[in-house]
Amino acid sequence: MIDITDIRKVYKMGSESLTALDDVSLTIENGEFTSIMGPSGSGKSTLMNILGLLDTFDSGHYVLNGTDVSGLNDNERAHIRNKEIGFVFQSFNLMPRMNVLENVMLPLVYAKVPAKERKLRAEKALEQVGLADRMYHKTNEISGGQSQRVAIARAIVNNPSVIMADEPTGNLDSKTTIEVMRIFQQLNDAGTTIVMVTHEPDMAEYTKRIVHFRDGKLLKDEQQTPKRLPEGEV
Predict the structure, then answer these.
(1) Three-class SS of residue 112?
(2) Which secondary-structure segment (H or E) carries 221?
(3) Helices 144-156, 174-189: crossing angle, 10 deg rounding
């Protein structure tokens, strides 16, 4: 699914240079649920942005689901990004003037999916995250946990190859954090590949693999039996 080789990213700040990623190689197979951990400044967010085609790199190679994305231009990257990747961010990134259903349909608008199919697919995605009864609410009428579930529905509506989740539980209380992690496990059980950046070790326990970063280098790569959340209503 994801294969990066010798990825290097250096940020220039005046006369200084900061190496965010130092010749990092990593392979993530289809169907994995991987968490990326590391202290602030370790390179984990830079890696997430590169994997999500939100940022470029200085050298190395990146193959996403069989496509070499290393040399693509901005338009090509945007096309692959919308087709292959679903994003879930800490701050939800919902459009406040749109209702829940319209927010979930947004990636399908960019993909030029016909209006009737957009609505059907968005309704199905909201059902998957337990929010079918909130689809016509505005985003300021739902809780933080519900907002993150809307963001997950938006991430899966295009049937992406991989979900990239950047600190998805960072703004949530413990109860809604568990709700979100349960949804991720259910999606992964159904075959969705998930890559999650987190600084919370207890959240990483719910994933199948933990990749540790420090100072722009891959420090440790561990496979594990994930802690399971019970099935239940979200």
Answers:
(1) coil
(2) strand 217-223
(3) 20
Q: Give me the pLDDT at residue 170, please.
A: 86
3-class SS at 148?
helix
Amino acid at 168: P
Residue 155 lies in a domain: yes
Query: Based on the structure, what is the number of domains in the chain?
Result: 1
Q: What is the enclosing helix (H) or strand (E) of 116?
A: helix 115-128
* pLDDT at res. 142: 93
Could you read off the pLDDT of 182-209 as tens digits, one per residue? 999 999 999 999 999 998 999 999 999 9
CA within 13 Å, CB half, 129: 30
Residue 115's domain comprises 31-42+74-223
Q: What is the pLDDT of residue 232?
A: 58
**Is 80 exceeded by the pLDDT of residue 76?**
yes
- Element (H or E) spanning 10, and its range? strand 2-13
Residue 7 falls inside a structural domain: no
Flag whether 113 is in a domain: yes
- Contact between 66 and 30 under an 8 Å Cβ cutoff? The reply is no
CA distance 169 to 85: 19
> Has residue 57 been placed in a domain?
no
Coil, helix or strand for 38? coil
